[in-house]
Amino acid sequence: MLWLDLGNTRLKYWLTDDIGQIVAHDAKQHLQAPAELLMGLTDRFERYAPDFIGISSVLGDDLNVKVSDTLSRLNIPFDFVHVNAAHPLMNSAYNDQQLGCDRWLQMLGAVDKKKRQCVIGCGTAVTIDLIDHAEHLGGYIFPSIYLQRESLFSGTKQITISNGSFDSVGQGVTTQDAVHRGILLSIVGAINEISHRHPNFEMIMTGGDAAIIAQHVNRPVHLRDDLLLNGLARYFDHSKQP
Ligand SMILES: Nc1ncnc2c1ncn2[C@@H]1O[C@H](COP(=O)(O)OP(=O)(O)O)[C@@H](O)[C@H]1O
Ligand SMILES: CC(C)(COP(=O)(O)O)[C@@H](O)C(=O)NCCC(=O)O
Ligand SMILES: [K+]
Q1: What pLDDT is stored for residue 240 in this prediction?
Q2: Which residues does the annotation say bind ATP (predicted)?
Q3: What local confidence, expressed as pLDDT, does residue 69 receive?
């Protein structure tokens, strides 16, 4: 099986064998041209010869059509995930016409009827979702580190910070540090606030920036970079069962 996760910044793929072990995987910035990036991967995908391609996309219909056109050339069956608020594994109070497919699949990959869970996606946006014994209560969306830095750059005259590392939440004494620590604090502060409000929820984090952010959260966090993959596998496994 080949699994694709089309996020707002990066295209991720995983190739799994018939017992679900990951055989190959990669993540690449698609620079808002995912179909073109995919074109460059088609011969590799053909060599993999998967029997099915399962796709999570938050890129919208126009890009999804271009992705479909590219994949159609491979003669490999593929399908996009559609959010189902009444899925047997998890019921959601969220508007399922609006809920991002990646948020839903990350939850589907983690959901456990016996637990209260806080699932945090650290991608282009940071998403926080609360699941109480397999009931999705809803969640939060806010800009992640690069989006926040870009908005300061474009929204102010004197802040022209465009690179640097997000590695501390200590107060800064230069613009460079005040910007990077302020942004990280805004994200970590929000997560710590949600964690404080829901002390008995298990904290689970995924996404490209999970490792950077988790280390500043004031409670143990389960880092799961396979969460969306697990959700894709559960979704398509479920859709096959009678
Ligand atoms: N402007 C940028 N410069 C460098 N890295 C970036 C930039 N924007 C995003 N990234 C990186 O891309 C990754 C995005 O995470 P990912 O979970 O793949 O997001 P999405 O699912 O939204 O595509 C993160 O590791 C982040 O550090
Ligand atoms: C919130 C998101 C942009 C996160 O996407 P990502 O950061 O993984 O690219 C995505 O889940 C999305 O487009 N959601 C639709 C709006 C909603 O979930 O309410
Ligand atoms: K947008």
Answers
A1: 72
A2: 5-12, 124
A3: 96
Question: Does 66 show up as a binding residue in the annotation?
Answer: no
pLDDT tens string 175-184: 999 999 999 9
Give the residue, out of 12, 102, 187, with the most ligand 2 atoms within 8 A of its beta carbon, to mutate for a pocket test: 102
- CB of 208 within 6 A of ligand 1: the answer is yes
Is any atom of ligand 2 closer than 6 Å to the C-beta of 208? no
Cα separations (Å) of 12 from 1, 4, 120, 210? 14, 6, 18, 15
Q: What is the ipTM of this complex?
A: 0.96
Give yes or no for residue 144 CB within 6 A of ligand 1: no
* Band of residue 210 on the pLDDT scale cut at 50, 70, 90: very high
Residue type, 242: P
> pLDDT tens-digit profile of 52-91?
999 999 999 999 999 999 999 999 999 999 999 999 999 9
* Secondary structure (DSSP) of 75-104: T--EEE----TEETTEEE-S-TTTS-HHHH
Residue 10 near ligand 1, beta carbon < 6 Å: yes
Q: Quickly list DSSP for 56-82.
A: EE-SHHHHHHHHHHHHHTTT--EEE--
Q: Does the annotation flag 228 for ligand binding?
A: no
Ligand 2, atom nearest to 8 Cα = 9
Q: Is the pTM of this model over 0.90?
A: yes
Are 194 and 140 a contacting pair, CB within 8 Å?
A: yes
State the DSSP H helix or E strand holding residue 178, giving kind and residue range, or none if neither.
helix 175-197
Q: Has 167 been annotated as catalytic?
A: no
- Cα separation, 88 vs 73, in Å, equals 34
